Amino acid sequence: MQKKVKELIVVVLETLLITGMTVFSVLPVSCKFSQSGIHLLGGDYVPPKLDQVVVLDETTLRMTFSEKVQVSAQVFVRDSELFDEEVGTSVVYGSVEKQIDVCFNEPMITGIEYEMVGTVKDNVGNSTTFLIPFVGFNSRVPLIVMTEIQSESVNSQTSDESAHGYNRNEFVEFLVLTDGNLSGLEFVSAYDGVERGFKFPGLEVKRGEILLVHLRKRGNGCVSELGDDLNLSKNSYSKNGIRDLWVTTEETALGNKTDVLVVRNSANGSVIDYVFYRESKVVEWNKKFSAVLEFLKDYVDINDVEIAALADGKSSTKTLNRSDAGMLLEKVKTGFEFSSPLEMQGDNWIIAPANPGTL
Predict the structure, then answer these.
(1) Looking at the predicted structure, is the pLDDT value of residue 44 above 80?
(2) Are strands 180-181 and 85-87 parallel, antiparallel or unpaired?
(3) Distances (CA, A) of 63 to 54, 122, 143
(4) Residue 346 needs a FRET pair 20 to 30 A away by CA distance; which of 87, 172, 236, 278 works?
(5) What number is the average pLDDT over the span 91-105?
(6) Which residues pair with 204 in a beta bridge?
(7) DSSP assignment, residue 342?
(8) End-to-end Cα spacing for the chain
(9) In the predicted model, what is the mean pLDDT of residues 205-229?
């Protein structure tokens, strides 16, 4: 009997030893020995996180991290003609902890695509690598406003549209209020999500111009007019003499009758224009809208659904139209100086027959 008890005790001790070794091998702690025994010490095993990237000006890109770090980085041009050409830069550690500036030896080229790759390490040696695409700083960002919105997914075709293979795709019409370059501007829909945002090409625009951004590339004639010829696009909602720009996806776009639309400067996050619209039965925003609503928290009460334009009457032939678009165009012609963003008011928007390219 005593022999069996001893054997049992040995088995229990061996089990405890093995279990203890296993637990200590996976615990994220270190240990030390002292006269009084073993002391467990907590450790930092989390690599630093990149919280924000902002293109400050023509020669500076600023990164903000979750903690104080050291950075090693290189910047390359991703333009088709200068692909993989390295750009001369230096890293500057400012007085604000966690912020680091990457300074260019020469000014960035507006509209050119760049890519920064590097490694970041914190004070205890945790490290991570990063790859950041960005567009050359644009010092001449124009003010543009949305003036007509077709968010309905229209599958019907007239006999003429069917014969030519044309489709009526979702679009947003814009009026240009000031001269500038579209590089860095981004259009996002809360319904579609930030990842499906449309990035405007680096084009020069003049005040008074009208732009049509087609948000689904479906059918024939879906040609982006990036040069002087504004008669290339031939799809259903295209219009000669008006610059048509097309996304590359064939997926449906925008919330049919409820959405939050934002135009922002992707370089610094500033908002250029925004529109809320909803069905009258909607009393609060969908939770998936939160990422885009966050862009607007410094401009408007993002929880106030009452500011939204009512879209119950929208249909395959009727769109949301900015009722004061013609007045804005007249102000443009007189040289009026606009500020951005214009205040969003639901009663500025009405339901009217689709008429893109004509204010």
Answers:
(1) no
(2) unpaired
(3) 7, 14, 26
(4) 236
(5) 91
(6) 181
(7) P
(8) 100
(9) 96
pLDDT digits (tens, 9 = 90+) for 307-335: 999 999 999 889 999 999 999 999 999 99
SS3 track for 92-155: EECCCCCEEEEEECCCCCCCCEEEEEEEEEECCCCEEEEEEEEECCCCCCCCEEEEEEECCCCC
Quote the tokens at residue 337. Answer: 């100086």
Q: How many CA atoms lie within 13 A of 255 on its CB side?
A: 22
- Phi, psi of 326, deg, nearest 5: -65, -40
315: Cβ–Cβ under 8 A, 6 or more apart, which residues? 152
Q: Which residues on neighbouring strands pair with residue 144, listed in sequence order?
A: 176
The one-letter code for the residue type at 266 is: S
Q: Give me the residue label for tokens 């996304």.
A: 247
DSSP string of 23-54, one letter each residue: HHHHSSEEEEEETTEEEEEE---PPP-EEEEE
State CA 167 to chain mean position distance. 27
Q: Are 89 and 104 in contact (CB under 8 A)?
A: yes
Q: Which two tokens stand for residue 122?
A: 């914190």
* Rounded distance between C-alpha atoms, residue 334 and residue 287, angstroms: 42
* pLDDT single digits (tens) 230-256: 999 999 999 999 999 999 999 999 999
Q: Which residue has the tokens 């293109």?
A: 55
- Compute CA distances 219 → 128, 190, 231, whole Å: 44, 26, 17
